[in-house]
Automatic annotation (TrEMBL):
It comes from Ralstonia soli. Gene3D superfamilies: Periplasmic binding protein-like II. CDD domains: PBP2_Fbp_like_1 (cd13544). InterPro entries: ABC_2-AEP-bd (IPR017663), Ferric-bd (IPR026045). Keywords: Signal. Residues 1-27 form the signal peptide. Pfam families: SBP_bac_6 (PF13343). This is 2-aminoethylphosphonate ABC transporter substrate-binding protein.
Length: 345
């Protein structure tokens, strides 16, 4: 009997020990959430850390690429969507995903606190804005002086033959920044004059690169004196000490919104909506304000060196639905005219 009792005691103790060990391991299990994003790589770790601190039972798994690549990937996966959430993608792309029936309308907690001008107008919204990013010209004043180039002040100035081979620009099929430029020119001036302008500009373009950041980085390095880019990267390049001036053309700035949307096909709707809730929070907007001069949460944005305090007033009129509906047609026409100067991928 004593031997039998001893054996039983050992079994009970072993089972109890196993339960104790298994408990913490079980508690540490996290639900992976697949998030497709075009957010700048500089920012990803801050969003991941902030969200996972507030939601310790969820782990973000990023799939990150440029806006055009992420948009194409989501459309290619339409029959079998993989992402749970899309974050930091252009509103013009999210409007297209909405039109394709890929997004789940959802109004995140705290939505009423956000500026409604920077989210989908439907209620509940299919996408919710984080920040505005706008076009900017990065101008290397040292290289320009060496080459005898005047400082441009407008988009039309960039069509001056004096700048032949001196300008780089993002490819609109790869880069959201490139597409917001093309869309803005067509909307501001009408299609006839918009394409006429791009024909003239193309004569001065050295190459169309596959990143919205790269033209400003190239200008900062002196590789090319002028890069059509966006204000966030221009601010960062200036902070690095590069001799770059930021120019905000007086005709109006192309712009878009980085936004979040929940995928309709997600098998983790609870976790996906919690991510959307957090991205709409003040905490997330404070992270966003480290880089962006215009954020969705009023009163959070801070002045950024080199960025005009009235940036919002410089933004051109922008119809996101038009940009989404006409995206394929515009990109096909653009490629037919200018693809020959596209940089190798």
């Amino acid at each position: 009997m004593n031997v039998s009792r001893s054996r039983m005691t050992c079994v009970v103790l072993a089972a109890a020990a196993s339960a104790v060990l298994a408990g913490p391991l079980h508690a540490q299990e996290k639900t992976p959430l697949l998030v497709y994003t075009a957010l700048e790589e500089d920012a990803l770790k801050f969003y991941k850390t902030g969200f996972e601190k507030a939601n310790p039972d969820i782990e973000i798994k990023w799939v990150r690429d440029s806006t055009g690549v992420i948009t194409a990937k989501l459309l290619a996966e339409k029959a079998n969507p993989q992402a749970d959430v899309v974050a930091g993608l252009a509103a013009s792309s999210l409007a297209l995903l909405k039109q394709q029936g890929l997004l789940q309308p959802y109004e995140p907690k705290g939505f009423a606190s956000l500026n409604p001008n920077y989210s989908d107008t439907s209620r509940p919204p299919s996408w919710v804005g984080m920040d505005v990013w706008s076009a900017a010209i990065c101008f290397n004043r040292i290289e320009a002086q060496k080459q005898g180039l005047p400082k441009p002040t407008s988009w039309q100035d960039l069509a001056n033959p004096i700048y032949k081979g001196k300008i780089t620009m993002p490819h609109p099929a790869s880069s959201g920044t490139g597409y917001l430029d093309v869309s803005a020119w067509l909307q501001m001036w009408g299609e006839k004059d918009g394409w006429k302008y791009m024909d003239a500009l193309d004569k001065n373009i050295a190459q169309y690169v596959h990143s919205g950041s790269k033209p400003c980085v190239q200008a900062g390095n002196g590789e090319f004196p002028i890069g059509i880019s966006f204000e966030f990267r221009g601010h960062q390049v200036q902070k690095s000490g590069a001799p770059v001036d930021l120019i905000f053309p007086r005709e109006g700035l192309g712009w878009d919104i980085e936004a979040t949307g929940v995928m309709k096909a997600t098998k983790k709707p609870v976790q996906a909506k919690r991510f959307a809730d957090w991205m709409a929070s003040r905490d997330a907007n404070e992270i966003t304000s480290k880089w962006w001069a215009v954020v969705a949460y009023p009163g959070v944005a801070k002045p950024l060196e080199g960025i005009p305090p009235d940036l919002e007033k410089l933004l051109a009129k922008n119809n996101f639905d038009w940009a989404a509906e006409n995206r394929a047609r515009i990109l096909a026409e653009w490629s037919k005219r200018y693809e020959g100067k596209a940089a190798a991928k």
